[in-house]
Amino acid sequence: MGCVLGIFGCCFGSTACSLCCACCPSTRNSLITRLAYGLLLLISTIISGIFLMPDLTRVLTKIPTLCKNETLNDEEIFSGHISCEEIVGYMSVYRIQFSFACFFFLMMLFMLRVKRSKDFRSGIQNGFWFFKMLIITGICFAMFFIPNRGFATVLMIIGSICGFIFILIQLILIVDFAHSWNENWLAKGEDGSRKHYCGLVFFTSSLYLISLVSTILLYIYYASKATCSLNIFFITLNFLLCLIISIVSVLPMVQNYHSTSGLLQSSFVTVYVMYLTWSAMTSERADPICNPTNLNALGNRSIGITSIIALIIFFGVIIYSAMTSSRKSSSGKLLGVSSNDDMENSRPKIDGGKSYDDEEDSVAYNYSLFHLMLFLASFYLMMTLTNWLKPIHNFSDFHQNTSAVWVKIVSSWLCVLLYFWSVIAPCVFRNRDFS
């Protein structure tokens, strides 16, 4: 119970965390701060989900700037089109996530060139959580008074661009996680831990089995007829690409220069690529043969199953990036992790449940880069929670967004390319240290 209270206590500062979480081990201030910002994103997701509830949308339609007299953008909504009551929830999500994006953007600018905890701005970064929540609430409240004319369309364009950039960051972190996972378990296996070897075999086999079953199901439900030629192309190409990277990862030449390369990473990447393929096809226009998923989605403005999976992956990536303590990893380089974060020997001896300042000499990570990632993450959440919608005048194609299809499918290709390069790079640049 103390640990549960400690999680909420961290929202108000490290002191509250220490008081409420005496059963937890001592930890770094920088780690608590990054997890707390991740908690802010979780709160924004929960609030956005609440605003998508049908009962709440009936209340939101009474807000003049969102919907007035059955018009949208000062245009009448004719019979047969989606009613304003059904779309107002998505527009609220736009405003909520944009509010968080504005906050993180301001924090990014304010935290430029912070070098150590002695800088007063470091105290703002690591504390004052109550006032931060007040600022976000104020920004969010102001957003609901912005008229609809052109607002949603502009945000959709910005959100698509920023969301795509965040997907690229997410790909780097996912590939980095796959390599770290394999290296850690392989090292423990070499030290004599048989269960880690068994774990490698189990998870590798399971992930490949999931990928194979997923591919078969995609052919059955999304590419069963010749008319679904684009889906057939997507599935076949990505399956072949995943097969290629799996073979390359165990080639003798690759193993010679990259001994930790293996099938676990490629199986993990394969599952993610097949998920992106499925997600891309569900973003296509509704079709009883080529995209039966969207037929059900047309009458339900809630969060889709692909979006739920995307949110699970998203928060997994956020937690992984917060836990990063090595500047040599890809995630560490993205966040500008400092060398002092690698120095475990400098950790002070303190009682459990207390945090300590690990940024006296230099910050543990680049504050501005971290907030830039959260800024992009807010737009990614905005697009994910609204199923990458495309607001148009008559809203007849509210769920369909062609750009979302290509954003996701191109992301799957980039994921394969990124992993392929991470595997063969040691072979190409043999004089460089890739450890």
Give structural notes.
The chain has 435 residues and is an all-alpha fold. It is built from 17 helices and 4 strands. The strands form 2 sheets. A two-stranded parallel sheet has the order 1-4. The protein has a two-stranded antiparallel sheet with strand order 2-3. The protein is flat and about 65 Å long. The relative contact order is 0.15.
H/E order of the elements? Answer: HHEHHEEHHHHHHHHHHHEHH
What is the CA-atom radius of gyration, in angstroms? 23 Å
Secondary-structure-based class equals mainly alpha
| Averaged pLDDT | 78
* Strand line-up across the major sheet: 1-4
Query: Unreliable segments (pLDDT under 50, ≥5 consecutive)?
Result: 1-23, 69-81, 340-346, 393-397
Distance between the termini: 41 Å
What does the largest sheet look like? 2 strands, parallel
Give the overall silhouette.
Answer: flat
Number of strands: 4
Helix content: 55-70%
**Number of DSSP helical runs:** 17
Q: How much β-strand is present in the residues?
A: under 5%
In terms of topology, how is this protein built?
Layout: H1 2-9, H2 14-20, E1 27-28, H3 29-51, H4 54-60, E2 71-72, E3 75-76, H5 84-110, H6 120-126, H7 129-143, H8 151-190, H9 194-222, H10 229-248, H11 252-257, H12 263-282, H13 293-297, H14 305-323, H15 330-334, E4 355-356, H16 367-385, H17 402-428
Parallel strand pairs: 1-4
Antiparallel strand pairs: 2-3
